[in-house]
Amino acid sequence: MLIAGVIALCIVILILAFLAPRLSQHPQRGSQKVFGMGSRGASKAPGPLGRWFAKPFNSSSKAVGKSGAAGRKGRGKMPF
To answer: Where are the annotated segments for Disordered (predicted)?
Structure first.
């Protein structure tokens, strides 16, 4: 369920970044902040468990950032 939510969020950020690049930065930063909080909380686990628990949050944050950047880059390449 979490994977589907992250994919849906990435698609929404991508479309928003393509249609309104400046308006997409705030939701992108907000979602990255939420994933960062989850990562920080999960990394408190002892030993290698901390790294393992934090990895999905780090990957999700990175995916949201890449989808926003891709939408803005695609918008920049449009002729209008």
So the answer is: 29-49, 61-80
Query: Do 57 and 36 touch, CB atoms closer than 8 A?
Result: yes
- What would you report as the CA-atom Rg of the chain, rounded to the nearest whole angstrom? 14
- The residues, any chain, with a CB within 8 Å of residue 56's CB and separated by 6 or more, are 2
Which tokens belong to 47?
């030993």
Measured CA to CA, the distance from residue 5 to residue 11 in angstroms comes to: 10
The structure's pTM equals: 0.86
Contact 33, 52 (CB under 8 A): no
Compute the average pLDDT of residues 14-43.
95
